[in-house]
Write a structure and sequence with these properties.
single chain, 104 residues, alpha+beta, Outer Surface Protein A, domain 3, three-stranded antiparallel β-sheet, two-stranded antiparallel sheet, 5 strands, 29% helix
């Protein structure tokens, strides 16, 4: 997981490119393939050719199911214990910057 700041986006509008807002809807980028590994998974973006490590199985679950939830916060809440949710939102911010996930 990354330790980047979550950034901020306008509360009323959709997510701005580069700014992560857990209250907004996201999805796994369609050009990203996820390969499960013992530590979590590898995410490969076929467009920009980036390889990203997802270092926790719960993060893999969140990324794979983002599109099923009304917001990133709801996806995190469904798969992550309360005490770790902020860390996972920071990780999603880094994944947005790497184009592993995108705003819907």
């Amino acid at each position: 997981m990354t330790s980047e700041d979550t950034g901020s986006a306008e509360a009323a509008g959709p997510a701005v490119a580069g700014a992560f807002d857990a209250g907004q809807p996201y999805e796994k980028h369609p050009q990203v393939a996820i390969r499960p590994e013992s530590f979590g998974a590898l995410a490969y973006h076929y467009g920009n050719r980036r390889l990203v490590f997802l270092k926790a199985p719960a993060l893999v679950k969140v990324v794979e199911t983002l599109g099923d939830f009304p917001s990133a916060a709801a996806a995190v809440a469904a798969h992550v214990p309360d005490a770790q949710r902020e860390t996972y939102c920071k990780a999603l911010s880094g994944l947005l910057a790497s184009d592993v996930i995108r705003a819907r």
